[in-house]
Design brief:
Radius of gyration: 20 Å
Number of domains: 1
CATH architecture: Alpha/alpha barrel
Distance between the termini: 16 Å
Structural class: mainly alpha
Mean pLDDT: 96
Order of helices and strands: HEHHEEHHEHHEEHHEEEHHEH
Shape: globular
Strand order of the largest sheet: 1-2-3
Largest sheet: 3 strands, antiparallel
Strand content: 5-15%
CATH class: Mainly Alpha
Number of strands: 10
Helix content: 55-70%
């Protein structure tokens, strides 16, 4: 790629945050009547004012706009981050048993009170980012409390790692599934991936030896149990002793994990570990490049031992491919990774960006037809993946 192409690539992505993603969330997300954020907005901008409110949406808005404020010093970004922080601490945190609830009703009352380490990690991630952006000590205190809770209540002392789901009082739940599409197994790659990014951010913010020790332990779990040792993809579900219980492949998680592992290892400043992780990261990106890309350059969704099982083009997987391939290019010098990132971005710009109502469509078919029935905002449709892509590419290609 020529320098002018790289510059245009970077500029287009910066403009996407400034002119499309950020304005959508600033305008439509806040619930001015009941506080916090609406729980459901359809693709054509109809708001369900009585939809439940999820911690994942709230925590991801917190992280995204705290990070955006850190980068751009925009007062509107800080206002939205503070709204997320205040609502999280006032409504989602369980002051009796600790941790954050999974969902609230539209008035802010607890609805699903299960404690999922996935959710605790995202709350920790967002709270820590607000501290990094503003120096808000209350946010850091809440983040450290969640770290202590994960270590004391959610971690498997015998085999390491974190169980999937607990009841409100932190007794292990009978049904371990994070969501309806997940398997009922004690441990998952997905939860550990987001514990990884949360602990990396907390370690960066505090330089705390105990946090760094646990971050190293989570990286080790990936190296020893989660990354397939020959094929370099992320195994998805496990029992308590780390026996793999699924042959499914999640292409978006594979490429996301490839760069998040590097980010985590960089925090530890261990040259040997960092070299090992970077080597594996490039192999993970190469493996995905070989088997996960469609002919139009976009990323397919899922496969199993028999081949592709879901060929839709989800918004979040494409964003992680852009960052992951740029990361692989920076580590390896292989220009085809950079070219792959650009092709994914071209697919996003052409098919996923909603040029009429703003933000992005949830997914398209393999032919590029958007799934208009899917929401524009929900517990799982947040600004974190596409916002973070914009931040990462702006930084990496500066």
């Amino acid at each position: 790629m020529k320098p002018v192409e790289i510059s245009e690539f970077k500029n287009q992505i910066a403009e996407e945050w400034r002119d499309n993603i950020a304005p959508f969330w600033l305008r439509y997300a806040p619930d001015e009547k009941h506080g916090g954020f609406h729980g459901w907005i359809t693709n054509d901008l109809k708001i369900d004012k009585q939809a439940e409110k999820g911690i994942i949406l709230n925590a991801r808005i917190l992280w995204t706009f705290a990070h955006a404020y850190k980068l751009y010093q925009n007062a509107e970004f800080l206002s939205l981050a503070n709204r997320a922080f205040n609502y999280l601490t006032e409504h989602f945190i369980d002051r009796e048993y600790g941790g954050v609830f999974w969902t609230l009703d539209y008035r802010g009352q607890p609805l699903d009170t299960k404690k999922r380490p996935y959710a605790q990690a995202f709350a920790l991630y967002g709270l820590t980012e607000l501290y990094l952006a503003t120096g808000e000590v209350k946010a850091l205190a809440e983040a450290r409390a969640l770290f202590d809770l994960l270590e004391s209540r959610a971690r498997d002392a015998a085999n390491d790692g974190y169980f999937e789901t607990f009841e409100r009082d932190w007794t292990l739940a009978d049904d371990q599934r994070l969501s309806d599409v997940d398997q009922d197994e004690k441990k998952s790659m997905n939860t550990h991936l987001h514990v990884l990014e949360a602990y990396a951010t907390l370690a960066r913010a505090t330089n705390d030896a105990g946090v760094k020790d646990r971050l190293r332990a989570v990286i080790t779990l990936f190296l020893e149990h989660i990354i397939h040792p020959e094929k370099f993809y992320l195994k998805m579900f496990f029992n308590e002793i780390w026996t793999s219980k699924s042959d499914h492949l999640s292409f978006g998680h594979d490429i996301e994990g490839s760069w998040l592992l590097c980010e985590a290892a960089e925090v530890l400043a261990d040259a040997e570990l960092l070299a090992q992780v970077r080597n594996i990261s490039v192999k993970m990106a190469q493996s995905l490049y070989n088997r996960g890309l469609d002919g139009d350059g976009s990323l397919l969704y899922e496969a199993d031992a028999g081949g592709i099982i879901d060929d839709d083009k989800h918004w979040w997987t494409q964003t992680e491919a852009v960052v992951g391939f740029v990361n692989a290019y920076q580590l390896s010098g292989h220009e085809y990774f950079l070219a792959a990132a650009l092709r994914v971005w071209e697919f996003i710009s052409r098919y996923l960006v909603d040029k009429q109502n703003g933000e992005w469509f949830w997914k398209t078919s393999r032919a590029g037809v958007p799934a208009l029935e899917m929401p524009k905002l929900s517990q799982w449709k947040c600004p974190y993946h596409n916002g973070r892509m914009c931040f990462e590419i702006s930084r990496r290609l500066a």
